# Entry
Amino acid sequence: MLLLAAPLAAKEVVPFIDNDYATAVARAKAKNVPIFVEAWAPW
Amino acid sequence: MRAFVFTDKALERYAGQFVWLAVDTENGKNSKFLQKYPVAALPTLYVIDPKRETAVVHYVGGATVPQLTKLLKDGDTAYRAKSQSASDVLLASAEKYGAEGLASESIKAYQQAIEKAPKDWPRLGRAAESYITALSMKSDNETCVQQAHALYPRLKGTPSGAAVAWGGLTCAAELKRPDAIAEFEPPTREALHDPNVVLSGDDKSGIYGTLVDAREALKDEAGAQTLKEEWIAFLEHEAASAKTAEQRAVYDPHRLSLYIDLKTPEKAVPMLEQTARDFPKDYNPHARLALAYKAMKKYDEALAEIDKALSMSYGPRRIGQFRTRVDILTAKGDKEGARKTLEEAIAYAKSLPQGQRSEKTIAALEKRLTETPQ
# Structure
């Protein structure tokens, strides 16, 4: 039953913006940093 | 990567050096991004220059923490570089073309970047990996095998070397060429157990898949069967060692496919029921349970599960679920239901926004509808 006691998910250590390219571009320009993008799908 | 990589504290130091964007390719909000940067395989990773809105890094496939760290460093260097070597300029062009879906231009630029590379070029590994992947995705298998043959000796003993051998074997299996399979099969297999080559469990599972394909290409059914048994033992061990439910669920699709292939689909049911309990808003365990029950010929249970999945899912992925529903109804002998579901699938496929809508998919569904008797 160890499986049931396991946490569902660990926390991400980097602050992802979800599904908002325009906001990411604006923030990156303001901070003068590049954008890292992970294109993924829930499957 | 969400379950294993982005949770790793080694990445904390990069948190402020980038803006981090997650693009769910199933979500209609991302259709503009997907038109600008067409995604051919998942995951795809990018580093984008926000001023020019062009990719300076384009990497198809998952990455381990060390691989991702390298991509981030390369991306930051490319973004800030005032002057670059000829190979770096060509690599940047290759990545930009690749991100824009221009495969032929991208391949040409990778080739030139590698040709002009100095002996100690630090980006040779990444360029070689992406070059071989691009050739394989374009189904230019002859060139893929030839280039993997030339590049592998330069990268042997590194994760990029393992990736190049794996890519070469993928292309060799497609060509069913015994000489090329003999060349790339041993180093691909060795990568599974090489402590110097850090690979994700996901990648190792992919490697087993290619090793099976290679054995099947040589019509070695006994060898393929032995590998499948080793593969499922590996997956079960990885799932049992997972620290979180999310990590365990990463292996669900691999295990399901293999259980079905090994004619033991019933073994998938408890693991998928567990995932469904752990993640009640996730449509995936229900879509997978439908496939398991279909393979078990339990059509009513399969139908109930696919309907649960369809009630929760969104994006292009739903089309695959409609197809599963058609398969279940066809197997059940419900032709009218199958036709109705196909009509729903076509209407849904046509409703998707640009960037997610696929004319090829719509044509395939329409063809299937004409082939499904009334």
Summary: The longest helix of chain A spans residues 21-31.
